[in-house]
Amino acid sequence: MTDAKHIVKTIEMNGEKVDVAMREMLRPATHEELEAMTPEERERFKYLSPLNTRTYIAEEGIVCMQDIPVTMRDGVTIYVDIYKPEGEAKVPLIISWSFYGKRPFDGQSEWQIMGVPPQTVSNMSKFESPDPGYWCRHGYAVANVDPRGIGHSEGDFMQFGTQEGRDGYDFIEWAAVQPWCNGRCALAGNSCVAMTQWRIASQCPPHLTCIAPWEGTSDMYRESLCEGGIPAASFVNLVMREAVGPNYIDDTVKNLERYPFINCTYWKDKDPIWENIRIPVYVTACWNHFHLRGSINGFRKIKSGKKWLRAHRDFEWPDAYSNEYLKDLELFFARYLKLERNGWELTPKVRIEVQDAFDYLYQKNRPEDAFPLKRTEYEKLYLDAAHLSMSKEPIAEPAMAAYESDDEEISFDYTFEEETELTGYLKLHLWVAAESYHDMDLFINVQKLSTMGEWLPITIFSESHPGAWGKMRVSRRKLDEKLSTDYSPVQAHDEDEKLEPGQIVPVEIEINPTSRIWHKGQKLRVQIAGRYIRENWFEPLMWDTDNKGRHLIYCGGAYDSYLQIPVIPPRYKDGEYIYR
Questions:
Q1: Element containing residue 295 per DSSP (H, E)
Q2: What is the extent of the structural domain holding 294?
Q3: 365 in a structural domain
Q4: For residue 55, what are the β-bridge partners?
């Protein structure tokens, strides 16, 4: 594909002028215009249906108000498709806000929802969004919005920042006073459509009643562009390449090069104002998805007294469109958008699925009061480099283990003597050195093995998930003292501290939370490598690693390398009987 055109624009962010790298989006074009182009020209365009402001019957009982213009506070016009039940009744509004295009195929090169059978979702549904084919038949309107700069909407698209939050505010306040709306609005959707909800809700639109961010990254730097300090350009570039609009998109990959540290106005502008979010919120998090950290941290940071978390094993799309959880979400929306007294408040504040192996769960939707769980007992498993094992007791004799950073890995195993549940945050404390280089990228998987030593993965779409994960570029080992806790270290990302070859340094590696049961005799494995070991895992995730030569892991004696694990004791135990 021909490289996109890049420019730099000066944008005001929170009262400061910031130079922002922008890339030209794919330009909208009709079928006729595309057919008249050369193949080289066609690479810079994507089909988009012409503007056609009209009202029509989309399906029996459902009206579509198509390409409705809405003016933002600075005069920019955006366009939206609004679906509502046929008739004059005023209904609450559920909003999908993302840059994927407000109709299937508009701005999308491919339309598929993995794990969801064909015809489950109607062709009125925006990608990863509430389906009007369901919600309109249950007494709601649905708005599919093309944000600023997307589709035919005017302006440039600034990803996941304050500008998008303000525009969401303006749209909600416009929609709430329309003759078809009852004045109560919600945001819903998963992945990208969840990520925008944090930003809009933190601007506190008066008519935003509740939100349902399902599986949404919340920290763009730490969770998307630079996880563990290791740049990740490929997936973000892949997503940005699909954006269609008349102007430019904020190029987060180029801006990571321009602004490599997190403590600058550009990255701060993408942080939601967490303390502002005080409305009812229903969050979901998948234990096996890259949005996991963002979903759980968002749940923990918001100040709402009415917030719910459901953490599960399944992938986001089959979970979001399943009959069981559509009805669950409907109870939440009916309570706050229709003011029905339906008992939603009795829903446990936290529900977790405790995973076992493959497709099997140990427990489903177990009720809890908080996350992390209040009864968590943190234990340390000390790494033994001499035997590639772990022990509850510190290792007396120092030893070193090594692997080639480009194509080898090293593993440390521990055997559980009794059934053990781990739910919550793990962390890995290591003493490490790069034998002949000034930096090292560490990729961590925490896996489960059978009593015979065979890997017991979690399977999603019949593929094996690599395991609970963590990453760290060692030159970014400095921690943020305000954000870090004893159970969850958070990197500061405000400077580089390069290594001398052979220099031994301690690192604390954040491992994303999990919930899993180990039965008696099963093993826990810590896998350490200089690359992401995916084992055919389907997501196209890649990191721009910076490794050379051998990585050295020091254990024992003064080098107290250990894995800290969140052990959950049974609620009740009597002899062989265990109740969790």
A1: helix 292-301
A2: 6-347
A3: no
A4: 65
CATH number at residue 145: 3.40.50.1820
The Cα–Cα gap between 74 and 251 comes to 23
pLDDT digits (tens, 9 = 90+) for 472-522: 999 999 999 999 999 999 999 999 999 999 999 999 999 999 999 999 999
Q: What is the DSSP letter of 574?
A: E
* Interacting residues of 247 by C-beta distance below 8 A, sequence separation 6+: 24, 25, 149, 154, 155, 156, 157
Q: pLDDT (tens digit, 9 = 90+) per residue, 558-567?
A: 999 999 999 9
492 and 426, same structural domain? yes
Rounded to an integer, what distance in angstroms lies between the CA atom of residue 172 and that of residue 201?
10
E strand residue ranges, 44-128: 45-47, 54-59, 62-71, 77-85, 91-97
> Is the domain of 342 the same as that of 407?
no
**Is the same domain home to 99 and 155?**
yes
Of 298, 328, 347, the domain-final residue: 347
Residue 1 lies in a domain: no
Amino acid at the residue 344: W
Rounded distance between C-alpha atoms, residue 63 and residue 178, angstroms: 15
Enumerate the β-bridge partners of residue 527: 411, 445
Q: Residue 134 domain-assigned?
A: yes
Please state, in angstroms and rounded to a whole number, the distance separating the CA atoms of residues 70 and 53: 12
- Report d(CA 394, CA 406) in Å as an integer: 30
Angle at 375 between CA 369 and CA 379, to 5 degrees: 140
DSSP code, position 102: S
Count of the separate structural domains present in the chain? 2
Residue 152 domain-assigned (yes or no): yes
Q: How far apart are CA 63 and CA 84, in angstroms?
A: 5
Neighbours of 120 (CB within 10 A): 17
Distance CA 252, CA 244 (A): 16
The predicted model scores a pTM of 0.95
Q: Are residues 341 and 389 both part of a single domain?
A: no
User: What one-letter code names the amino acid at 497?
Assistant: E
Give the closest residue to 430 by CA, choosing from 510, 357, 491.
Answer: 510
Q: What is the largest CA-CA distance in the chain?
A: 78
- Of 18, 41, 550, 456, the closest CA to residue 269 belongs to 18
Strand pairing partners for 458?
A: 358
* Alpha carbons 184 and 334: distance in angstroms, whole number: 11
Domain stops at, among 293, 328, 347: 347
Query: Is the same domain home to 261 and 191?
Result: yes
In order of 29, 157, 194, 242, the CA distances from 245 in angstroms are: 10, 9, 21, 10
Residues 277 and 339 in one domain: yes
Pair of tokens at residue 302: 């918001």
- Looking at the fold, whether 336 and 417 belong to one and the same domain comes out as no
Q: Whose CA is closest to 252, among 228, 273, 289, 221?
A: 221
In 3-state terms, what secondary structure has residue 508?
A: strand
Are residues 312 and 397 located together in one domain of the fold? no
- Give the separation between CA 180 and CA 55, rounded to whole angstroms: 13
Pair of tokens at residue 526: 């810590």
pLDDT band at 71 (very low <50, low <70, confident <90, very high): very high
> pLDDT class for 108, splitting at 50, 70, 90?
very low
- Condensed to tens digits (0 to 9), the pLDDT of residues 179-214 reads 999 999 999 999 999 999 999 999 999 999 999 999
Cα–Cα distance, 395 to 431 (Å, whole number)? 13
